[in-house]
Design goal:
By secondary structure, this protein is of the alpha+beta class. It has seven helices and twelve strands. The strands form three sheets. A six-stranded mixed β-sheet has the order 1-2-4-5-8-9.
Amino acid sequence: MNLSMTGELAAAYKSGSQRARVVTEAWARSQLYCANCDSSSLGETPANNRAIDFVCPRCRAPFQLKARHSALGETVTDGAYTAMVAAIREDRTPNLLLMRYALATWEVRDLLLIPSFMFSESAVIKRKPLAATARRAGWVGCNIDLHRIAPEAYIPIIAASSPADPAQVRARYTRLKPIREIKTAQRGWTLDVLNIVRRLGKPEFTNDDVYAHDRELEQLHPDNRNVRPKIRQQLQILRDTGLLIHVESGRWRLP
């Protein structure tokens, strides 16, 4: 994989965001591969779909690229809040590619992949409506809170200027695919419980450790008041997906 981008493509544009978009997307078209199948390339953007930058020509998996020359922060700016929530509910979220590049040399430094099915509604943070004086007055955007996404979802394609083996990238993506089989109405619960489990920072934990976060889950899912039975159900689902190991009654271990 060639990590050098064609910076000369930026010369025709004045806007910094346009310059970055043209250069980074051109690199992605020439260098990226699909993590969902064995396709060695990604295809062009579907017509009239701003949320998708690339589609795998073989399996049709969609991808969105967000690039910046500074370090990744705690959040990622996304589009309209209602559109993002609807995409999650309808299982239309693209796989997200997060790139960090060196502006002076137009070289890729880091590239993370977050599978499309690893986003929960709790990770979508509503921004304030645009002011009445703005061109799109009242429009409500959103940010993606990266802390609301479990660590398993972060699959490095490039780390510190070192590309990962595509076979390893695909293996990590495949390992998470059982999550995709969970219905979207249920998946948010599963992902939120998984995120809490990982935040515990324990290789082995109990039901009570997760119960300590029941108020947080109640706030995230106000329509469900039977939080503790729901937690137990989600732990069993995570066991069935291979992301948890059941040690004994009320005790679990990370694989």
